[in-house]
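Lecture notes, part 5. Sequence design as translation. It can be helpful to think of inverse folding as translation between two languages: the language of shapes and the language of residues. The source text, in structure tokens, appears below.
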């Protein structure tokens, strides 16, 4: 097998993948820089039998090129997500077209197009009977969101940019009459721009919350009813489950004191054995089957990162997200292999 990957050459992901490929005895991996692909340069994939598209990461120039902007957006700024999404899918199609005849694309463009649109992904999962929180129809801004929440009788929701990732722009919202609060990593500057920043903060001024929602809305919003999460050792949790070649292979517990559990927000990996014991083997096995069923909706993709939520009491669970690039779990070994080594082993089989 000759593997080619579209990636950020200096990214941690790329280093882990190259190390796994070397350990598996593969020929040297061809790394095509994302800057070249996003900038429209020729894509050299000659001789590749498998092609992987890796995350574009946080490179501001790549993001600018994907959006088609003439000037860059500030680091961490949440803007132009709709244009970024269109650029990402167009770039992925160029990669697919450049792949040699017979080469396998490990994350097909049609899968990426759904996985990076939370509204479409939710619809696909729901139609397949995968448990997901109920969602509102498309909302156009704060006033529309409040009206739809009132109509549905919902007090608590998660507001998510349709094309966001890594909790960027996500708002855990409570709107109950005159009481409104939002927990989010969004920082709003005096001139109205939005940035993904630490620490996670709470807004209680409705005018500020409305301004954030209205700024995000033109790029598309996905709004789900708040699914209460189970807790363990005093912390709220969910799971990142990496499904590889159809099997729930690697699992990490994401524990948090806030409703946002993403590890890069200062949260910690939890006690996997303790959580599994608390859930019980029957509930755990059912949850893993659900993750595998969610990933099975994207049969062309070798792997997918499924975010799985248990409800208090552990009897119920639901899928919050399915992530195209959700396999970065450094140091997590199963049968002596990290996620990348397990993916390569599946390919070699």
């Amino acid at each position: 097998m000759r593997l080619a990957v579209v990636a950020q050459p200096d990214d941690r992901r790329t280093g882990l993948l190259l190390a796994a490929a070397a350990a598996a005895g593969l020929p040297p991996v061809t790394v095509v820089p994302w800057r070249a692909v996003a900038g429209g340069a020729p894509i050299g994939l000659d001789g590749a039998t498998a092609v992987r598209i890796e995350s574009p990461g946080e490179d501001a120039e790549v993001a600018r090129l994907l959006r088609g902007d003439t000037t860059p957006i500030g680091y961490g700024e949440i803007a132009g997500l709709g244009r970024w999404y269109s650029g990402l899918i167009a770039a992925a199609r160029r990669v697919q077209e450049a792949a040699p005849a017979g080469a396998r694309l490990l994350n097909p463009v049609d899968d990426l197009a759904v996985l990076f649109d939370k509204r479409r992904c939710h619809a696909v999962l729901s139609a397949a009977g995968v448990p997901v929180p109920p969602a509102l129809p498309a909302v156009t801004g704060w006033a529309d969101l409040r009206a739809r929440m009132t109509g549905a009788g919902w007090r608590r929701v998660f507001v998510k940019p349709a094309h966001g990732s890594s909790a960027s722009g996500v708002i855990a919202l409570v709107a109950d009459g005159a009481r409104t609060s939002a927990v989010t990593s969004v920082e709003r500057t005096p001139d109205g721009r939005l940035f993904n920043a630490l620490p996670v903060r709470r807004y209680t001024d409705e005018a500020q919350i409305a301004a954030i929602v209205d700024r995000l809305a033109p790029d598309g919003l996905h709004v789900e009813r708040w699914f209460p999460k189970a807790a363990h050792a005093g912390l709220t949790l969910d799971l990142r489950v990496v499904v590889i070649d159809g099997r729930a292979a690697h699992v990490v517990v994401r524990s948090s004191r806030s409703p946002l559990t993403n590890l890069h927000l200062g949260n910690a990996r939890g006690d996997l054995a303790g959580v599994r014991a608390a859930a019980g083997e029957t509930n755990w096995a059912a949850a893993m089957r659900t993750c595998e069923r969610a990933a099975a909706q994207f049969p062309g993709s070798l792997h997918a990162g499924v975010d799985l939520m248990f409800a208090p009491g552990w009897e119920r669970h639901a899928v919050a997200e399915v992530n195209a690039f959700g396999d970065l779990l450094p140091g997590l070994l199963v049968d002596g292999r990290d996620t990348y080594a397990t993916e390569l082993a599946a390919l070699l089989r």
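The translated text above is only one of many valid answers, since several sequences can fold into similar shapes. The longest helix spans residues 81-98.
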